[in-house]
Amino acid sequence: MSTTRHLVNRQRRLATVAAAERAATTTPPRPRSGRGPDPEKPDTPQDEADPHSEEDDGDDEPEAGKKAPRRRPRLSLPAVLCVLTLVLGAVAAWAFTSAASLRDDPSRQNTALTDISRTSEVKGQITEAVGAVFSYDYASPTKAETAVTKYLTGKAVQQHADMLAEVREQAPKQKLVLTTTVTDSGVELLDGDRARLLIYADQRNTRTGKSEETTYAAAMFSVDAVRKGGSWRISAIDTFTR
Which of 29, 195, 205, 239 has the most CB atoms less than 10 A away? Predict the structure, then answer.
C-alpha cells in the first residue's frame, strides 16, 4: 500500500516539473503598452512608413500661422479669345492711324532729295526769277514790270509791289539802279508742282545822280513756288519779318 502511494506521488511530482518546464520555455505574448516597439513586429524605418500614417495626415491641414496657397482663377477659352480679339483690334487701329499720319505728313512727300532733275529745275528757274524781279533800273521800268508778269503769281504780286514801292518812287529822282544777285539757294520742299526755297542774295544799290554812290546789302528770305504752264513761278515771299 505504501509502495503504491509512493509511486503515485512520484508521478505527480514529475508531471508538475514537466508542466513548469513547458511554462518556462513558452512565453505568452505581452500586450502593447504604447511604449516602445511591438516585440512581435520588426521596427519599420521612418522613410518606409505607411502613407496613411499620422505624419502624412498632418500635411492635409495647414500648420498654425501659415496660409493655404491661393488658387489662381483660370480663364476659359472664350474669354481668352475675346481678349486676343481686343488686343489685335487695338493694334490694327494704331497701325492704320500711324500709316495715315505718315501719308499726311508733308515731310514724307518731300522729294527734294530724291527727284534730282525736278529739284535742279525749280532751283534754276526760281534763281533767275528772284534776280529779275528784285532788280530795278530807273531808265527801263518796263523791264521790271515784264519780270513781274512773267515770274510772279498769286499774293506774291502784291507783296513784291509793297516791297519795291519806295524804290520805284525814289528811282527817277536819284537815278537809282538796284541789282540783286542770288548767291545761294536751297530747295526745302518739293511736292509735285509745289516747292519752297530758301534764298541768299546780295543787293547792290547804285545812285547815278550828281554824286555816284553804291551801297551793298545781303538778304535772306524764302519763296513758295508753283509750276504753271511748264515753268516755275513765285507764289509767295517770306522775309521773316512780323
Answer: 195
